[in-house]
């Protein structure tokens, strides 16, 4: 597949291995990949195929870049700093918790 696509073998192997762990494909013998009922369904069910394509083409890119976006946005501190998001959370623990808690839930008030 790497030769046919012109991609590096490592870049082809990783997504195939992931598909095997998700039971979409299987490896009947070392170095060989075969289809399963799940991969057949992806071919036959246009709605499922479209959802998977949207998830991988659009949502994957957004998820991949989220960490970097948080680090450069200064979301936690509100001011430009050299700190990354996890360092800013340590400086502003109540603000960090407000992001981590479910919508509308608040930390109990601290005693003075």
Task: Provide structural commentary.
The protein has 6 helices and 2 strands; from the N terminus they run ααββαααα. The termini are far apart. It has helices at residues 2-5, 9-21, 37-44, 46-73, 85-91, 93-100, and strands spanning 25-26, 34-35. Strand 1 (25-26) and strand 2 (34-35) form a beta hairpin. Helix 5 (85-91) crosses helix 6. By secondary structure, the protein is mainly alpha-helical. The model has no long low-confidence stretch (mean pLDDT 75). Strands 1-2 form a two-stranded antiparallel ribbon.
List keywords for this structure.
single chain; 112 residues; mainly alpha; two-stranded antiparallel sheet; 6 helices; 61% helix; 4% strand; extended
Topology at a glance:
Blueprint: H1 2-5, H2 9-21, E1 25-26, E2 34-35, H3 37-44, H4 46-73, H5 85-91, H6 93-100
Antiparallel strand pairs: 1-2
Helix pairs in contact: 3-4, 5-6
Whole-Å distance between the termini?
A: 65 Å
- In N-to-C order, the SSE pattern is HHEEHHHH
Put simply, the count of helices is 6
Number of strands: 2
Estimated radius of gyration = 22 Å
Overall morphology: extended
Strand content: under 5%
Q: Name the poorly predicted regions.
A: none
Alpha-beta content class: mainly alpha
Overall mean pLDDT score?
Answer: 75
């Amino acid at each position: 597949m790497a030769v046919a696509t012109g991609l590096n073998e490592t870049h082809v192997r990783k997504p195939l291995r992931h598909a095997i762990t998700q039971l979409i494909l299987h490896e009947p013998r070392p170095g060989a990949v075969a289809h399963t009922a799940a991969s057949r369904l992806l071919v036959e069910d246009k709605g499922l195929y479209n959802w998977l394509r949207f998830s991988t083409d659009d949502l994957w890119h957004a998820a991949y870049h989220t960490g970097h976006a948080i680090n450069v946005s200064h979301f936690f501190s509100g001011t430009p700093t050299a700190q990354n998001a996890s360092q800013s959370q340590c400086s502003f623990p109540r603000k960090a918790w407000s992001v981590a808690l479910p919508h509308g839930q608040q930390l109990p008030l601290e005693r003075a």
